[in-house]
Recover the amino acids of this structure.
């Protein structure tokens, strides 16, 4: 199938009480592994890349890779810019052919976040490309952005932010963090329910690696329709490679350990798709 926009899949998830899994990919093996999992689960999926991933191999490389894999697949796949950190990068992704864009102005002052987000929304509108933005600050380290000062999303601010920017989906900060948690994260799910009552567009949960499955499911019941997973996929791929090389220290063919890395990622993504409830929704 040709790449699709993330908008329709997220609206369907929103209306039907499940969530789309959004998976960060770093290389060709992870792209193939995630799409294999989506196909085996008959699930729509979003593949996404952050600015540091883009720095590694370039937007055209990820676009060509994901597009080729999506066209060979029989489930809908969207390609999303995750944590776009400038108007310029968002425009580059749009021009290359990404089918979903996030502009992350959450580290700016509220008014500046509104301004940059609205600019990206206006630029994406003619191509019908949906825009995700973040309000409040998800903690932890994602990419080169280290956030030691997380701030929860204020529900009233969210109403104004959505109205003034025209975004298609909103990433909320309710206590999740990017990366590995020390101990179990404490999520402010009442805040999520409050935002859901006031805001009608699909809501996004970042930082889902390490969040217990039941907690993710609770967030989905309370109105999350896209869940982002990155760190756990990186760990799974690396563990596959490490395990193979430990057992075969003389191996030198990247295909041999790449296959094992892919198997580990596919297994994990299938589990996450089940948690999101998007299996058999393709
Ligand atoms: P994790 O690395 O915690 O899974 O976060 C992923 C994410 O939110 C990407 O935007």
């Amino acid at each position: 199938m040709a790449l699709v926009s993330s908008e329709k899949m997220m609206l369907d998830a929103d209306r039907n009480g499940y969530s789309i899994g959004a998976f960060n990919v770093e290389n060709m093996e992870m792209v193939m592994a995630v799409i294999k999992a989506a196909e085996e689960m008959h699930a729509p999926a979003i593949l996404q890349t952050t600015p540091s991933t883009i720095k590694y191999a370039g937007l055209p490389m990820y676009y060509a890779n994901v597009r080729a894999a999506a066209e060979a697949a029989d489930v809908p796949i969207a390609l999303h810019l995750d944590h776009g950190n400038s108007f310029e990068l968002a425009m580059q992704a749009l021009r290359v052919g990404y089918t979903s864009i996030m502009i992350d102005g959450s580290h700016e002052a509220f008014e500046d976040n509104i301004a940059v987000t609205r600019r990206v929304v206006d630029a994406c509108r003619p191509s019908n490309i949906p825009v995700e933005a973040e309000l409040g600050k998800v903690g932890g380290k994602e990419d080169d952005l280290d956030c030691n000062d997380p701030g929860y999303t204020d529900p009233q601010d969210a109403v104004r932010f959505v109205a003034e920017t025209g975004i298609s989906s909103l990433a909320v900060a309710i206590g999740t963090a990017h990366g590995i948690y020390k101990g179990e994260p404490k999520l402010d799910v009442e805040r999520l329910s409050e935002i859901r009552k006031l805001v009608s567009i699909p809501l996004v949960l970042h930082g889902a690696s390490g969040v217990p499955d039941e907690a993710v499911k609770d967030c989905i019941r309370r109105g999350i329709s896209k869940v982002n997973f990155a760190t756990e996929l990186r760990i799974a791929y690396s563990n596959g490679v490490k395990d193979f090389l430990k057992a075969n220290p003389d191996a030198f063919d990247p295909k041999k350990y790449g296959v094992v890395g892919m198997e580990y990622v596919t297994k994990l993504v299938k589990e996450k798709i089940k948690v999101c409830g998007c299996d058999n929704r393709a």
